[in-house]
Amino acid sequence: MTATSSLPSVPTASATTPAARDGRGSFEAALRGPGALTAIAAFWMASRALMLWMLVNDFHSSNLVRVDVSGTYHNWYDILITWSMPHDDITWQYPPAAAAIFLSPDLLPFLTYFQAFVALTVLCDGVILVGLLRAARRGDGSRAGALFWLLTLPLLMATPFARYDVQVTLLAVGSLLCLRHRPRLGGVIAGIGAMVKVWPLLALLGAPRGKSTREAVIAAALTCVALLAVFAALFRDSLGFLGNQGDRGVQVESVGGSALMLAMRTKVWPGRITFQYGAFEYVGPYVPVIARASLALTVIGFLLLVLWRVRARRWTTATPLDAALCAIMVFTVTSRVISPQYMIWLLGLAAVCLTSRHTTQRPIAWLLAATTLLTSLIFPVWYGDVLLNTWTGTVLLCARNGTLLYATVWSGIRLWKATVTPAGAAGGDSAGIF
User: Fold this and answer.
1) Residue 27: is its pLDDT beyond 70?
2) What is the dihedral of CA 273, 276, 278, 280, to 10 degrees?
3) Cβ atoms within 10 Å of 389's Cβ, excluding its own
4) Mean pLDDT for the chain overall
5) Helix (DSSP H) and strand (DSSP E) numbers for the chain
6) Which of 34, 71, 92, 96 could be 67's S-S partner, Cβ–Cβ 3.0 to 4.6 Å?
7) For residues 207 and 213, is the Cβ–Cβ distance under 8 A?
8) 322 contact partners, CB below 8 Å, separation of at least 6
9) Is 320 exposed, middle or buried (0-12, 13-18, 19+ CB in 10 A)?
10) 0.70 cut: is pTM over it?
């Protein structure tokens, strides 16, 4: 089958088998039934109100969650309003357009900085939900994505509303939802996301080869260049974040970190945990080796994704969504840092996958839901046990990272099987990326 920028609808089991009609079909019918939107809106308001209550009432050490906004972000804001990037703060590790997020509470001057930031984050959460519901109106659409986002974000308790990752996830979700019919706009949004937190640029990875994808990539590149120029003109030292990011070590909660934690718990490794570069990291022998291995695995993961793109021959309307989720999972598990808020990215992209009935990532999405629950048990519920290297903290961390690693490998396998033509089969199109 020739790969083009068009995305054909392909039959799926849900459209062809009685079991699927009785199971997934009846579930989808219930989601589209009378009163469904009212129930969704009511649950969103109730669940988000509960998350806000957790945030302001020290539920399971929510003070640890709030400090990023009331302390770190507010301190950055005080520097940013002087038209300078906070490059002297080693915790500033973000591209220049992130400054717009930390300055955004000025849009609500009648609130405190903390109140305005949280209010805008809740608003972005609602916009994501609306976008997922609109995507469900397409011919191959499903409200399962909106339901997934609705139900899984509260598993992170108060964390989503005290981080700026919901805003970044909104940009990635928006880019993916626009790529199908408005590729240039999708590229622009991905470019904005890249200048806020880099990873949304991977939303373009799975777009089918053809004119529309080239337009999206060019739009993203031009957007990145334009934003770099604007922020370089407005702010001093807009690229100072690069040095701070490069100094990061191996964070406690990373996949490599969980191996060190298990080794430390069993007395095999004599290292320790310390606070540096804005996070708890490991210090001791072999830590630099683990850090370099993580970077090497990231490069290998990227090369495998490029190989997939070159070899892929079959695209459905779900392929760009599935590829974006797989790519972000690869970069997450190979990273030296896995903060709790990274799960917001994965939940958002999994929700986008579930808006299509043709997605290959449905079982991966539910594994991510389980991983999210384990993440909340790690932080903030039993974070003290993690830092003290108790068996409870060690087992929780290893279980979370093991589940996430398994889900990543399975995601890649399912994507490969669904899109790559077997050796010797008729392919018709020449290999290429765009």
Assistant:
1) no
2) 0
3) 17
4) 88
5) 20, 2
6) 71
7) yes
8) 206, 353, 359, 360, 361, 411, 414, 415, 418
9) buried
10) yes
